[in-house]
Amino acid sequence: MSETVGVSTSIAARYATAVFDLAVEGKALPALEKDVDVLDAAMAESADLRTLLSSPLYSRDEQETAISAVAKKMKLSKTTVNVLALLAQKRRLFVLPQLVSSLRDLIATHKGEVTAEVTSAKELTKAQADKLAKTLKAQIGADVKIKAIVDESIIGGLIVKVGSKMIDTSIKSKLNALQNTMKEVG
To answer: Cβ(71)–Cβ(81) under 8 Å?
Structure first.
């Protein structure tokens, strides 16, 4: 499985670099950033889209027709539409999630931003997210974009991941640590 993920990531990174370079040359970076957000949200929300991307049951032509229709409906930029059509022709739509992730990283690096993945038990308010971003900016020294994830199983607190660093202040992890301590005693 990890070999497949590695190959997908490698393929996606090459496409992402090419698309990013085209967007920079064409001064279309804001449009690309919007496209990345729209595609990411669509993949998260639509099981049918995820099936289209990964199912070997669809032919090249069916995938290309479907992804072109979806892209048109989402009002994606011409460059993004062309890349999606190319991925469908090459039977590589399965790399789209990694492509979106790679593009997001390239855009953030270009803008001098860092993305922080923040998991909370309930959705953060705008004020909470802004305050957290400001606090993280002071610690990291770069603009921080918050990617919020809601996971009720953590009960409370936050899990913040920035690059390779992780801060876990969730109640779930504290309860697990307490449980482990009690096992050691008993």
So the answer is: yes
